[in-house]
Amino acid sequence: MTGPRSWAGLAALATLGALSVAVAAAGPEIVPAAGRGGGGSDPGWLLGLYGDGLGIGGGAVIWLERCMLVAYGVVLLCARALPSRVLWGSMIGMVALFALAPPLLSLDVFSYVSYARLEAQHGLNPYDYPPAAVPSDPAVPFVADFRSQVSVYGPAFTLLTLPLGWVGVGAAVWALKAIAAASVLGAAGIAGRVASWRGAAAAPAAALVALNPLVLVHVAGGAHNDALMALLMAAAVAALLAGRAIAGGAGLAAAIAVKASAAVVGGFAFLGEPRRGRLASGFALAAGVVVVLGLIVFGGGLGSALEVIGDNQDRPSYMSLPATLSRELGVGLDFARAACIAALAAGAAWLAFWTWRGADWVRAAGWATLGLLLASSYVTPWYLIWALPLVAVARDRALAAASIGVTGFLLLNQVPSLGG
Fold this sequence. Notes:
Number of helices: 18
Distance between the termini: 40 Å
Helix content: 55-70%
């Protein structure tokens, strides 16, 4: 391995690793669950391997994440000059580093556990009852935003997490951390494999997914279920591109049943897939299984999740583009939101026509998903993983650059208190 690009890539990779250590082991200030355990002390499992860490505050962590973005960009520019084993080893090591960190910058993982415990421990339907219905449950003190809300998560995810309701809160949290980390690596691995089918190098494509700082810090570090959705979506895309339309349709249904945002990919896949009937059959079969199981276990309460998802658009997050335009331009939030939605609708319509005319549907879905992130009134850093597996295999440098730009935008507006 010789040449300036190789050495620059190695230096950037080492820098990204060092910054990752600093963020993963920053300490309790970026662990929102710290101090919420009750009785004046947190359970011993909460802070995990790193304990009190390095004592780095939230504001400093945001700057460290921004530095990670610069290093990540250099790694991607130099990735083809780096040995594949170095890139794969770095991905595994850095994702594992954040998997071993306590739940970072979010309390969502405790919501997952609380909803599972409602059904498993208390016989209450999580689509009918919020965590606050059982205030004595040991998971509830760690739940904040969703304490008084019924579950907003898809039936497939809720069904998959039900067994975690039978174990302790700590065991459930660390199991979800492991699932998120494995899903990130799985989605990256599939993206690399698909990229190689399409004439691109596998390891650089995988690195685009797994080494993104928002994926490392928030998805692997925060144990968000977006990782599982991304894994299922990537598997579905791989199946469709391999000519397995029934399996691809089933995978898309499973991804949507974890998180509805995967429906964007489903729409473009249907437009671009020549075996639409087989895709639709696989989708219908898997969706039917999920719906039947969901109705058996949860009854008709599933519809309440859709209402909460819609309500999220009425409480915009600080870092969303509509909220940013409203602040910076002094226009009304409703106007900014309407303008972003109109732009998304126009862009999606053009991309749909482009796909119908024979363009690469994966590439179109990548652009549409990034557009969804920008147009949405409610967006968080971990949502970026919705787009990255598509970006990694799209063979579109402009799309890859846009994904880095969206990462920078989300980091520019990130606030230390909650990471979103």
